[in-house]
Each structure stands twice: as C-alpha cells, then as structure tokens.
Amino acid sequence: MGTTRMSIKNYLLTATALIPLIFCAPSLADTPTITYSQGKYQAQAPDWSKITWGNLPPVQQPGYVSIPQNLISVFGYDPSRSWSAGQKTDSIVMLGDADDAFKMSDLTLNSIAQITPTSEKLTLRDFGLMQWQTPKSLVKAIPELGNLSVNQVPPLEDLLSKAGISNYGTISEIVEYNPQVANLKLGQIDLSKYSLDSIPGLHDTPLKDFQSWQQSYINQVPGLNQVPFNKMPQPINSGIGVVGIASVVLGTSERGDAKVGNNYFISGSVVRGDKTVPTACPAAKECSYLEMGDFAGEKGALYGKRWASGSSQQVKGGYGFLAAVNGGKEPTGRLVYGNGFKVILTGVNESKGTADFGLNFRICVRPPFMAKTCTPYFIGPIPWIPVNENNLVIVGTGG
C-alpha cells in the first residue's frame, strides 16, 4: 500500500488505497434481489425496497483521505476520514458525499421515524451532529428555539452553567449579547443524559439546517441507515431502463488493442456532470472484460460492446479540488444506478462463465458559492450481484 501526495493550487491532499485492486467475489446472499425477466433471459436485480446503507456488504479495502486545513476552511467542514477493510459503508459515507444522489439532507428525524419506526429511547448523543452544534447554530436551525428561556432547554442550561453563566434570559438574547457563549459546542456536556425531545423542534428540523451537517456519517443519524434506497427523498435509479445480455467473459490473458477504441466500451471514467465516458483499455495492457449482446442482435447498440474489469484498468476520475485524491484514478466502470456509486466489474471467471461486480463510492463536497468537487470513485469495493453468461446484465444509462 502506498501514499499518494499531490499539490493542487498550493494545497496538499493525502490519500491512500490498495493498488493493484484486490477483490473478493460477492455473495448473492448478501444483497436482496428480485428476478427480472426479458424474453428468455433473466437477471437478479437489486431489490431496492430492502437494500439500505446499513445492510450493504462491507468494503473490501482500507484507505484514508486527509484534507489540509486551508482546504477545510474553503469547504466549511472536514471531510477527512479513514476506513478499514471489512468496515460497514454507513460508517464511511458522510451525508455530504451522497446528498446530490439521494437528497438525504431533506429528511428530518420525524420523517425517518415514519419510514423506520423504533421503540429505542434515543439521546442527543445518538444524533452525532449534535456534538458540534452551538446555541447560535441551533437558533439558526430552529428559529423558534430563540424565543425560549434557557431553563426551558435543559442541555443548553447545562452548557451555559458549565461556562459559569447563571443569569440569563432567552436563548436569542444569549446568542446576541454573548458571542463567546453562543459558540460553545454541545459536545462539552454529556449528551447521553438528554433525550432527543429535550430540544424543542429538533425532530422536525431538516438535516441540512444544522451546522456542518455534511460531515455527519450516515450511521450517526438515528434510523437513516435503515431507510431503503427507494424511499430516499430522491429515490435510487433502478438501472433497468437499459439492459443487455452477458454474452461471454474473457480473462486476464486478454490485452488492449489499439484498433479497439472507446466506442467499443461501455465502461470508463466519470466526469463532471456525473456522466460515464467510455474508455478503451490501453494497447498491450491487461484487459479482462465482459462482452455484451443485444436483444436486437447485431444491429443493437450494445452488441459487441465491452465492460472492462476495474482490476485490469484504472481511469481518470473526480473533478475540482478533490480530483487529485488517489492519484486522480478510479477503476473503470459505470454509473448504473445514478451517481451515488459506480458499478465496477471486479473480475471474471472464464471456466465458470461468471462476472463479479462491486460498488465503489467517493467523497464529494460542495463549497459555499462554488461548484461541487469529488474524489475519484476509489472507496470500496462493496461486493455486488454477479452475472452469468447468457443472463441479463443491467447497464443503466451511465449517468
């Protein structure tokens, strides 16, 4: 495992991931599926009504991203993190990474509870982003809170008491006339002592109204990791709008051919605008792939097209400040289900006629008044649904 260091506009980004990529064959039992048929062909398609962030298989490779302080000040929060092989996705992905894909920040604790009810007695500690909230940020998120006296909101009373303040009026008055106290973080008190009800209006406030909501991990929002992908504010794309036939798989003895250009491939890079740009394997380099068939035969758009393996080919990925992470590279693949993750062909078995797949994720930030910036899709792979020769393969629209 190596460390990639790169300079970008006088900023330093550090990231590491395993290269060459090492993949484990997925287990179909890990992913809820439904049988999708077209003519005599079938596919095991993901059952998005039963797939959540919490039950996705764990990532197969470790890694980390370290963002320097001068970029953190541009972003408004710190998207740095590290993860281990075998770690669950909901503890790696932050809300800001996938908000464009699923609009999770539109959710409230109440709307989540309506989808995934729980009888568990939750505290402010269970709502991870509360630790960096302040009296000032809470009043901004929940304006009616400012009209209450401090002693009507026990956690704020505790916070102010620890700061040596006992003579106070409304929360708005404290925020306006005592800036130092207004910026005290709730993490300074024992949040496990207070229920979620201890802050009026908390349950009905959209996640995006809280300060630095983007840096909350998905598993730090009660119940969010149990919301099915088809119940997100912006539901996932099923991908079955475009489906091809898995004709044949060809292994690592295959090599790229200068005569076989980009137009022969359906796998490639993801560029700004979150579109898949087909990218051919370099000439003479290893190029295992899945060759496609089309229902319309030789005249079909997918006939003879190749989906190259990400274990064979790394392509350019990412855009903006974060494009330099992981050396600017990601495994070749497609945005089958939208931009939440990239589907990677992780390997083929010629003797068995099978193709294994995985999902890769990325880190994204939308700095204030600036365009979104994303790393390459280098976090993963999450074992996904394998495909057999002469079965259907879901290819989606590619973004």
**Helix-strand pattern:** EEEEEHEHHHHHHEEEEEEEEEEEEEE
Q: Approximately how much helix is present in the residues?
A: 10-25%
Query: Could you tell me how far the N terminus lies from the C terminus, measured between alpha carbons in angstroms?
Result: 31 Å
Q: Which structural class should the secondary elements be placed in?
A: alpha+beta
Unreliable residue runs: 1-12, 17-29
% residues in beta strands = 15-25%
- Compute the number of structural domains: 2
- Cα-atom Rg, whole angstroms? 24 Å
How are the strands of the biggest sheet laid out side by side? 1-2-5-6
Shape: elongated
Largest beta-sheet characterization: 4 strands, antiparallel
The quaternary structure here is single chain
Task: Return the average pLDDT rounded to an integer.
Answer: 90
Number of helices: 7
The number of distinct β-strands equals 20
Secondary-structure map:
Blueprint: E1 4-8, E2 11-17, E3 33-38, E4 41-46, E5 63-66, H1 69-75, E6 81-83, H2 99-102, H3 109-115, H4 135-141, H5 154-162, H6 171-177, H7 179-182, E7 243-250, E8 268-271, E9 275-278, E10 289-293, E11 306-308, E12 314-316, E13 329-331, E14 342-349, E15 354-361, E16 364-365, E17 373-374, E18 379-383, E19 387-388, E20 392-394
Antiparallel strand pairs: 1-2, 2-5, 3-4, 5-6, 7-10, 7-20, 8-9, 10-11, 12-13, 14-15, 15-18, 15-19, 16-17
Could you explain the architecture of this structure?
The chain is α+β, with helices and mostly antiparallel strands and about 400 residues long. It folds into two domains: about 250 residues, no CATH class; about 100 residues, no CATH class. The protein contains seven helices and 20 strands. The strands form seven sheets. The chain has a four-stranded antiparallel beta sheet with strand order 1-2-5-6, with no helix packed on it. Strands 11-10-7-20 form a four-stranded antiparallel beta sheet, with no helix packed on it. The protein is elongated, with a radius of gyration of 24 Å. The N terminus is likely disordered.
